[in-house]
Specification:
Pathway: Amine and polyamine biosynthesis; spermidine biosynthesis; spermidine from putrescine: step 1/1. This is Polyamine aminopropyltransferase. It is an enzyme of class 2 (transferase). GO terms for molecular function: spermidine synthase activity. There is one protein chain. The protein is built from 9 helices and 12 strands. With 281 residues, the protein is α/β, with parallel strands linked by helices. A 7-stranded mixed sheet has the order 8-7-6-9-10-12-11, with helices on both faces. A 5-stranded antiparallel sheet has the order 1-2-3-4-5, with helices on one face. Helix 5 packs across helix 6 (200-212). The radius of gyration is 18 Å and the shape is globular. The structure holds S-adenosylmethionine. S-adenosylmethionine (SAM) binds next to strand 6 and helix 4.
Length: 281
């Protein structure tokens, strides 16, 4: 915090900071796993912060939650079973369950307190938690995937914190190997992959670990996210075989509301900036 008027997340490594004017602190606690804070902001609604890092705001979370779910769901030919590793605020779960073809969506977050706070401070993100297709588990996602049976899920969405603390192992080849084993033949894992501008080293390492885990085809998508460092975020999909361009016709006729995602946005998010192409040539 700069003072009692502002929440500020400083990124020492990149020499940048992002601030939001706050009206009050609504909650803070040290959970078993991380330090959780909730602020009321002047312009962005409520803000969840974990270990000093901005996670979710009422005003702009739709970018992240929609782009973590709809591109991968419209890339898989026929997804029925989805696991969300992390994602405790439940926003990704809500987006996944907008797809009528989904038969089961399991959210596996290590920290039950994140979900309990989201229920209070972000109730709109939790509105599908009682959908009969939804299951909420509170255990380590690394263990969940390691213990899973082969060929048991179509899509794994890794909606995690940054690669530190309990999330560190979610960016490792061992974890991706376990994901590879429990995904079905057309299976896809997608993971939030930080800012291509500020965190290229993490992105490069993550893509290399995905390949070391057995995935042969990778595709990074880009989208805005104003409360995250640089305001420009990414997610990386990894699959066992070539990813189709995507089910464009289904995306055009999606039949549910989104704020950001549509088939044009999907296509645009696949376009690779020149520096990114060079980095992965
Ligand atoms: N959108 C956010 C971002 O990119 O900064 C992520 C939000 S979500 C709240 C991140 C969640 O990952 C947290 O609730 C945290 O508890 C969870 N998490 C971290 N490590 C985990 C692990 N090993 N297994 C399951 N969940 C984990």
């Amino acid at each position: 915090m700069l003072d009692d008027q502002w929440f500020s997340e400083a990124q020492t490594a990149s020499g940048t900071a992002f601030s939001l004017k706050i009206t009050r602190k609504l909650h803070e606690e040290q959970s078993e796993f991380q330090f959780l804070e909730i602020y009321e902001t002047e312009q962005f609604g409520n803000l969840m912060v974990i270990d000093g890092c901005t996670m979710v705001s009422t005003r702009d979370n739709f970018f992240y939650h929609e782009m973590m779910s709809h591109p991968v769901l419209y890339t898989h030919p026929n997804p029925k079973k989805v696991w969300i590793i992390g994602g405790g605020d439940c926003g990704t779960l809500r987006e996944v369950l907008k797809h009528p073809g989904i038969e089961q969506a399991v959210q596996i977050d290590i920290d039950e307190r994140v979900t309990r706070l989201a229920e209070i401070y972000f109730p709109e993100l939790c509105e599908s938690n009682n959908d009969p297709r939804a299951e909420l588990k509170f255990i380590d996602g690394i263990k969940w995937v390691k213990d899973a049976a082969p060929n048991s899920v179509d899509i794994i969405i890794v909606d995690s914190t940054d690669p530190v603390g309990p999330a560190e192992g979610l960016f490792s080849a061992d974890f991706y190997k376990d994901c590879f084993n429990c995904l079905t033949e057309n299976g896809i894992v997608v993971q939030q992959s930080e800012s291509a501008l500020l965190h290229m080293k993490i992105l490069k390492e993550m893509r290399a670990e995905m390949q070391a885990g057995g995935f042969t085809h990778l595709q990074t998508v880009f989208f805005p996210q104003c409360i995250y460092p640089s305001g420009w975020w990414s997610a990386t999909m990894a699959s066992k075989k070539a990813l189709s361009s995507f089910r464009e016709q289904d995306a055009l006729n999606k039949g549910f509301d989104t704020v950001y995602y549509n088939s044009d946005i999907h296509k645009a998010s696949l376009a690779m900036p020149e520096f990114f192409k060079k980095a992965f040539a």
